[in-house]
Amino acid sequence: MTDPQNWLPPTNADRPAPPFGAYGPPQPGGGPPSGWTPPPKPGLIPLRPLGFGTLLWAPFQVLRRNPRATFGSALIVQAVITLVTLVVVGVVTFLALGRIESASLAERDAVEAGSAVAIVLSAIVPIALSVIASALLQGIIVVEVARGTLGEKLRLGRLWRAAGGRLWPLVLWAVLLSTAALLAGGVMVAGVALLVTLGGAWVALGVALGVVGGLALLALGTWLFTKTSLVPSLIVLERLGIRAAARRSWSLTDGYFWRTLGVQFLVATMVNVVAQIVTTPLGILFGVAVSLVDPNDAFEAWIPSIVLYVLIIFTALVLGAVTAVIQSATTALIYIDLRMRKEGLDLDLQRFVESAGADDPYLVAPGRDTGAPRA
């Protein structure tokens, strides 16, 4: 029996620790309940629905957390695209200009037309490569964000293999988006050109169509892009086909359109502002260097301009790689956040982290109705 005179109330150390995520009585001033344990943060982000500020800054942490795999992949992709563009288009342009110079006056018009067509066609090769490489890079960053959220840090080779398994659906989606944008823009430009060529009052109508149609296309494109912006993440992480991924992206963004658009717009604005701050002085220096070249065309006088031009290309490669990583990571984080808010993905991720289970937490359970059958 306890002596009443020596009795002391139990301290916190004498009480058993509350279980993970337990809630005690609320604290004065609206603070968290006593004994409350926040969801863990094993890796890139906390395993709970993300605040607006976290969505803005977490994409930049992707670069910092695993730079060799993320920035390295983006730099390789950007360098290959730039090199192929310079080689293919540069060689064709050099040969085409040589043909024009050696052509006779009677054949010059035909040679110029053929050379122009050859130069334009040569650009198709780097454009096609750019679509494929950009789709692959997008898949790589999606995998990195998804695994980084679980505390995993994959090497470059594993990321490439994981994204490569879903490469062709990603490429097909990129081709569909590019084709739709080109067709819409081409139809509007053709309509404006036709009205302007008619002359008279049709010119004013053509100008009005160009202004109103351009704004309408911009608004429509922004809306469609935002509603379907989660498609790459769904293709890679949930292994859906294009049609199913588009439907599911449309559903996940319901009620969160402006939040999704706002995060993507602000991140893109921040990245582009930084890029302009870096590249604008270099562009000005290049223009000054070219204007100060020796009028006698001495080769040595071109050396500073050549060095500066190479520096501009290298800077553009680095900034392009950083921009690609950050924008792809932003979309992947929005996808994870929306699934946390609408489907309780945070609970699945917490269970996976705590139990180190083998099942992929991003795959939708067969019994859950999402309206998107797996491909």
TrEMBL record:
Q: Does the keyword DNA repair apply?
A: no
Q: Which UniProt keywords apply?
A: Membrane, Transmembrane, Transmembrane helix
Amino acid composition bias (Pro residues), ranges on this chain = 25-40
Q: Show the stretches that span the lipid bilayer.
A: 45-63, 75-97, 117-146, 167-196, 202-225, 265-286, 306-336
Q: Where is this region: Disordered?
A: 1-40
Indicate what this protein is called per its UniProt record: Glycerophosphoryl diester phosphodiesterase membrane domain-containing protein
What is the organism of origin for this protein? Answer: Cryobacterium psychrotolerans
